Each structure stands twice: as C-alpha cells, then as structure tokens.
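Bench log. Compound arrived from synthesis this morning; before running ITC I wanted a structural hypothesis for how adenosine-5'-triphosphate sits in the protein. Inputs:
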Amino acid sequence: MSQPIDLVRLDQINVLFDHNHVLQNVNLTLHKDCITTLIGPNGAGKTTLVRIVLGLIKPTSGSVWLQPNLRVGYMPQKLHIDRTFPLTVKRFLQTARVKDALKMQKALDDVSAGHLMNHSIHDLSGGENQRVMLARALLREPELLVLDEPVQGVDINGQVELYDLIASIRKKRGCGVLMISHDLHLVMSSTDHVVCLNHHICCSGHPEHVSNDPSFIELFGPQGAASMALYNHHHNHQHDTHGDVIADHPHPEEAPREVQTECKH
Ligand SMILES: Nc1ncnc2c1ncn2[C@@H]1O[C@H](COP(=O)(O)OP(=O)(O)OP(=O)(O)O)[C@@H](O)[C@H]1O
C-alpha cells in the first residue's frame, strides 16, 4: 500500500475558553483519500477541533500544518435561512463564489440533485437540503471536505444514502474527508478512521479494529454502545463528569495518543 499523503497535521493542540479546557493535547493527521470520523459526546470539542482545521480559531497552544494551498470544502451543521428570503438552489450555490453554470450543474449531479437547480431552497426535503449543501461544498473541488453532522434532519434511509454518497465522492475524487457524526452505527461502514474525542483523544483507529469495551458504554451509554457492534473502544482510563481523565492516566497527555493508521481503500 502506498504511503498516505498528509493534508493536515495537528500537533499537541490545546484550546482554552476562559477556564474551560476544551481541547487537551490533541494530535490528528488527515490524509488524502481517507474518511476520518470524529465521534464524541455533546460538548466534547468536536466542532472546536473542526474550526481549528478550518482556521476559524487559533489554538491556545500547539501547531497546525496544512498542505500548502489546500482547497477545503465545508458543509456546516445547519443553515438558517429565513423563509421570507426567496432563494433558489442556483442562487444558493452562487454564494460559494462560483458562477460557472456547468460547474454548478456538475456539483449537483454529483450528489444526485441535478433536477433541483431552480427549486426554492425552502421547499427541499431534509435529504435534498443536505445534498445541496454538499454540492456547494464540492463546488471548489476541495482536496479536503469537512462535514459537520452531514445527515442531520434526514430520515434513516436518507442517512444511509448520504453516507454512501460521501464514500463514493471520496472514492471518485480522492479527497480527504473529515466529518463529525453522532450516527455511530451508520457511519462505521463508510469511514476509514475513527477518532473518539472527549476533550482529549480517547482512542482512534480503523472501525473494524475495535470491539466492544465496557468503557465505551461509560462514554456513550449502553444504547450507543450496543448500536455500534463494530466499534471497539480501547479505553484504558475513565472520565469524570467533565470528560477529564480520572483513572489509570491522571493526566490527559498520558492517555493514548492518536494512532497513525493507513486508510483502507
Ligand atoms: N467560542 C466559544 N467560547 C466559549 N466557549 C465555547 C466556544 N465554542 C465552544 N465553546 C464551548 O466548548 C465546549 C465544546 O464545544 P463544541 O461545540 O466544540 O463541542 P461538540 O463536541 O461539537 O458538541 P456537540 O456535539 O454538542 O455539537 C462547549 O462547552 C462549548 O460551550
């Protein structure tokens, strides 16, 4: 297997909001042609980590390296557009500052939404809405696609389709993908690398390399753990109510660091 190409390298990232230590010594490498999925409980720092990658916030300490001139496509969690503001899909796509009609049509076609070009953005179903958002993120032919909970507001069948679509986009374009997901059981089959974040990186690796572990239940609850049959959480520590490490490794820096793994293609 060829050596993976790094797109982003985060080294020993710490983020403090006032006294809230949201990210603690986080190391993360994103590769070309690889889907990395960030999982973790609410408030674990997932969006903060994504915002670091996007350059929207600077870490309190640590270094961020991006491949020079890296083109990044971003799909936010949710767009709130007032219904009284008339907006077609076409006009929405143009907000990505790409006016080329052919490019816009191709981006929509790539997400199987080519027929929606002249529809009102307000009349789209949950799944159609997410596809249009994805098309917008694809417009600038990103080398890294960043997706914040891409299947939010989509029914279960639509969720499976969207994850499949993301996997096929990665395959077709060879881009790197970083996504946040809460749909542990669904995302497992369409990701290469899972990073479990709870302020620090609890564990990471190929989904199939992990199996049931009692400590996972501690983090996600019995239901979450049960729904993720493939996922094995190599926890060797416990968390207090703030997500801080309290056992085995009293200091987060002693908790397992990110494991560098190659993507399966
Ligand atoms: N700009 C900010 N200023 C102060 N605190 C912030 C800021 N951004 C995030 N936080 C806090 O940092 C913590 C982590 O937030 P973040 O949104 O990164 O978590 P998350 O894992 O994405 O959560 P969720 O799954 O609920 O979306 C939260 O306690 C949040 O309130």
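What the model suggests: The first strand starts at residue 6 and ends at 17. Strands lie at 6-17, 20-31, 35-39, 61-66, 72-75, 144-148, 176-180, 193-198, 200-205.
ITC booked for Thursday regardless.
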